[in-house]
Amino acid sequence: MVNQNILLTIVFLIIANNCRVYSRALTYAEQQIQFCINQDGTRQPLIIDTDSDVDDLWAIHYVLNVPTIDLLALTTVGDGYTKPLYSGSNVLTFLDLIGCSNGVGVGFGATLPLISAGFQISPALLDALDTYITSPTLPVDILVLGTMTNLATAISEDRSIVSKIGTLYFSGGQFKPLSNFSSLMPNLTIFNYLYDTETLPGNPNAYLDIFAMQRVATSGIKHIVAMPGSTQNTLPVNLTQLFETLKRMNITLKPFVLNFISSLAKCQNAAESDMKWWDNSAAQFMVQMQTNNSQGFCRQTKNVQSLYIMSADAHQFYGQGVIDTDMLLPNASGLVNYTICTQADSSIFLVEFLTTINSEKLYSCQHQYSQRFDIRLQQCMLKYDSAVQPTNMAKTNHFLTPFFLSVYLFLYVTYFLA
Fold first, then answer.
1. How far apart are CA 41 and CA 38, in angstroms?
2. What letter would DSSP give residue 104?
3. GO biological process: any one (predicted)?
4. How far apart (Å, rounded) are the C-alpha atoms in residues 339 and 294?
5. Domains of the chain in sequence order
6. Beta carbons of 207 and 262 less than 8 angstroms apart
7. Which spans in 262-403 are helix H?
8. CA torsion 275→277→282→283, rounded to 10°?
9. Is the pTM higher than 0.90?
10. 300, 335, 396, 410: which has the fewest Cβ within 10 Å?
């Protein structure tokens, strides 16, 4: 096995861009590694970063069955709706249960946000989610289904990956016009910095690490697409609609899959009316945008400029995302361009979701371990190891951070993108 320290250093030092490594051209040996990887150029490379909640796993199941996507890696973050110990194991166990054991590389990521929101998710809810599963040369796109902590950390480690990201897709976010606020004066009687309670209409994937959210958004990624929480809330998990659609489409899901997609309310000990098709709607919106599908479930999109309020004295506005600032805040800085879905059709959504997961094609699941992208990369680098050894081995330990696996996956999957 190639030395992990050497492999990490090589990956960090030879991220390629248009057949160049930083300011120099790739060597012959480095080009050989790229040819050796032999990536499928007909499918869109993708990384999914997830907090491993139940709806995240729905989204992963969906993406694995989309023929136009090549899922290179899954990275997990432990500061969202699962605790660090379970964020990775939930994904691995789920892959086993749907027949994709060892078929996709999984990296365990960060466990703490860059800046805490103060809001604590209910331990009872975390316990239920944690044990739900474990009890009896294209630019790479990234789909973030939890907080932005892992991606913000990867960008901090090496900003050169920003140019390698095609489109960043995000599940959640808030895009509220300033004109919708009754007052822009901070309410000093409301203590929401840092959050002591979950505050609607804020969005947890954003405010659980608002610093990471804004850092990623302003990093220079050219295209950012979001499925806002407000639009996700128009896609209820209605079991009556679910079973009627299955009957109408003559779809018979495997018992485990059917139970899995119909048990979210039970898992969270919550009312069915509170459950939405959250993260899997973001995955479907991503596919709709990637394939330019005008008949998809997102019926209307909008280009907006948004920023997240991070001032400590903003009180009730802290962590909220606002748009339409040009009239009221003409000199605002930190504005970021987003494409968002503003109107969705739940019937079209459900048909697409159920049809896709029922196909059981698992296009991105490698049935031979040796063909998995991360394994092929290691084998190719080992084959040409003598030609690409870094000269400055002192840099090696710099990258061995507690969450290096997720940062490693974010960075090494961009290697082949010459």
1. 9
2. S
3. purine nucleoside catabolic process
4. 15
5. 46-236+276-386 (3.90.245.10)
6. no
7. 264-268, 278-290, 346-359, 373-383, 385-388
8. 140
9. no
10. 300
